[in-house]
Amino acid sequence: MINKELARRLYRDDDRLEPGAEVQRQITLPWAQAARISYRNVTMRLGRAMITGAGVVLGIAFLCSVWTAKVAQEGIARFEATSATYVGGEEAALAPGAEEAEAEAKARAARQAWLVVMSLLVSAVGITNSMLMSVTERFREIGTMKCLGALDEFIVRLFLIESAVLGMLGSVVGAILGHLIMLVVYITKERGVAAMMDWGQMVTYILIALGIGTVLSLFAAVPPAVRAARMPPAAALSTEI
Amino acid sequence: MARIECPKCHHVIDTPGIVTVCPECGADLRGTMDELAHRREKMRDVAHDDSVTTHEFIVRTKELEKIYVMGEVEVPALRGVEINIRRGEYLSIMGPSGSGKSTLFNMVGGLDKPTKGTCFIEEVDMAQLDAFELAWLRCRKIGYIFQTFNLIPVMTALENVTLPMIFAGMSSDEMMERGAMLLDLVGLGERLHHKPYELSGGQQQRVAVARALANAPAIILADEPTGNLDLHTGKEIIDLLKELNEESGVTVISATHDLKMIDVSDRVVHIRDGQVERIENRADIDLDVGSLGGETEPGE
Fold first, then answer.
1. In a domain, B127, yes or no
2. Both B151 and B262 in a single domain?
3. Which residues contact B118 (CB under 8 A, 6 or more apart)?
4. Does residue B104 sit in the same domain as residue B27?
5. Taking CA atoms, what residue in A is nearest to B248?
6. Residue-range definition of the domain harbouring residue B33
7. Residue B103's pLDDT is what?
8. B-proximal residues of A, 210-239, CB under 8 Å
9. Phi/psi class of residue A147: alpha, beta or left (left: φ > 0; alpha: ψ in -120 to 50)?
10. What is the interface pTM, i.e. ipTM, of the complex?
11. Beta-sheet pairing, B116-121 with B57-70
């Protein structure tokens, strides 16, 4: 029934196993291939990916909204300061209560920073949890890959890339979302705020936010990835024991 | 009987004796005949020389024992199993659930280490291998087939088949070509880019067979390959495995409940209670095999 010629041609048994011989014993997972596989895993499991990604989106959205507010407020303050000096605002700068106002502002900034850090931590925990569920669901797949010759580090690599990809995409969405929402809020308060903002600084902040989101996702994926790597290949078999 | 190809006109000649001149183009074939004789001489030497790498027993177990420790309780799964499997053999391991069949399978396939005793694959002690070498073994020496097919659901048939080739470091072009040929071999040449959910159970198992052959392994390990298939499809897969075993000489070791497998096996190892109960040779089994609907008896 099968093409006998083809069967014979495709079969060649010339590799001998010698323990310790390193030269030709090659097991690799090229980064390009790992990236391709991880990308496919993300896009094909979009629902699960979105739940994992939601954590990043929300955390980074919050971060970006806080930073947008900061840049907007600074822009407004600069604008008012310049118009105040024009009118004669040096006295205003030395007005009593300015110091208290400054201390108040510092306290507020600290509280805000605390809030942002907490929200990012919550995001990270969400990512870890979601990825852990994903790993547990895919135990058979992981076991199979090990039977096909995957080293433990390949499995870790695949999950870390997956998480990094999710982190990047989620950060982009979150950054845009958080930034735009806060921008709109400020525009309604102060029409021309867009012109007052230091856009150079804003863009820098956004890029930093993207970086933070990606790195966060990467670190959050380490416990699940390590767990995946430890799965025994026998998990691929249908019967246990 | 010798088959030689004329180096000049590529005319193929089958001859019982010696041919000195090509009947087609008249070229001198003595050199080619010498080469053939020399090659045959070498193969004969190799077959008789035990120290050379064509091992007689591709898998050998010695006093294999496995005890699973579950908390306080010790469960002995294997109590001293000794089997020797020859290269090119088609061996079935049969036994009821809990007999140690799966544990033995794990040992032979390098998926688990024994508590006592040794398992040799091509005379190499499995327990001596590090993680890297074990991965190499699973990648290149052994091809696995599972009851639940275990194809990666997000990848197409071709991508599934080429996955072991990626680990083996094959180039992209070579991978795709070989993958397509393997899928053609198992009869799925038209479905290279179908994902597993677009394939029937039998087709998925065929992809799994093609995948098992990805790096031309010496051994195919099949864990209940027909467990999730209906009677007819199961028979197709068994026939496919037998044909591959006959044509390419790959050793097939199958753990199974399926009695249809007995008919194609060279030997059947019966396991019970962690020990080998008996080993049957196909020649000794007197089977009257019935036919499935649509098949014809030989001679009809």
1. yes
2. yes
3. B61, B62, B63, B64, B125, B126, B127
4. no
5. A8
6. 2-48
7. 86
8. 232-234, 236-239
9. alpha
10. 0.78
11. antiparallel
Which residues from chain A sit within 8 angstroms of residue B76, using beta carbons?
Answer: none
Give residues 97 to 156 of A whose Cβ lies within 8 Å of B.
Answer: 140-141, 143-152, 154
**B41 and B94 share one domain:** no
Q: Which of A10, A15, A41 sits opposite B140 (nearest CB)?
A: A15
Would you call A151 and B135 a contact, using CB atoms and an 8 Å cutoff?
Answer: yes
The dihedral built from the CA positions of residue A82, A84, A87 and A88, taken in this order, carries a sign that is: negative
Question: Is A27 within 8 Å of B167 when comparing Cβ atoms?
Answer: yes
Chain A residues closer than 8 Å to B164 by CB? 148-149
Asked whether residue B64 is domain-assigned, the answer is no
**Cβ contacts of A29 on chain B, cutoff 8 Å:** 166-167
pLDDT value at A183 more than 60: yes
A239 versus B133: the higher-pLDDT residue is B133
The tokens for B290 are: 């019935």
Percentage of chain A modeled with pLDDT above 90: 36
Sites in chain B below the pLDDT cut of 50:
44-53, 296-300
Let me know whether B129 and B25 are in one domain: no
Considering the domain boundaries, does residue B167 fall inside one? yes
pLDDT in tens, A115-125: 989 999 999 99
Q: Note whether B241 and B229 are within 8 A (CB).
A: no
**How many independent structural domains does chain B possess?**
2
Name the one residue in this structure whose structure tokens are 């903002």.
Answer: A197
User: Can you read off the two tokens belonging to residue B274?
Assistant: 């962690």
Question: Which of B87, B105, B152 best probes binding to A when mutated, by most A CB atoms within 10 angstroms?
Answer: B152
CB within 8 Å: B124 and A149: no
Alpha helices in chain B, H assignment, sequence order? 30-48, 101-108, 131-136, 157-167, 172-185, 201-212, 231-248
Q: How far away is chain A from the Cα of B227, in angstroms, using its nearest Cα?
A: 10
pLDDT at B244: 92
Asked whether residue B38 falls in the same domain as residue B134, the answer is: no
Within 8 A of A6 by CB-CB distance, chain B residues are 181, 184-185
Do B257 and B146 share a domain, yes or no? Answer: yes
Residues in A closer than 8 angstroms to B98, CB to CB, are 241
User: Tens of pLDDT along A73-95?
Assistant: 888 888 888 776 655 555 555 55
**B233 shares its domain with B108:** yes
> What CATH number has the domain bearing residue B199?
3.40.50.300
A19 has a pLDDT exceeding 60: no
**Separation in Å, CA of A147 to nearest CA in chain B:** 6
Instruction: Based on the fold, state whether residues B91 and B237 are members of the same structural domain.
Output: yes
The C-alpha atoms of residue B172 and residue B191 are separated, in whole angstroms, by: 19
Which chain A residues are closer than 8 Å to B155 by Cβ? 37, 40
pLDDT of B49 reads 43
In a domain, B54, yes or no: no
Quick: pLDDT tens for A25-61.
578 888 999 999 998 888 888 888 888 888 899 999 9
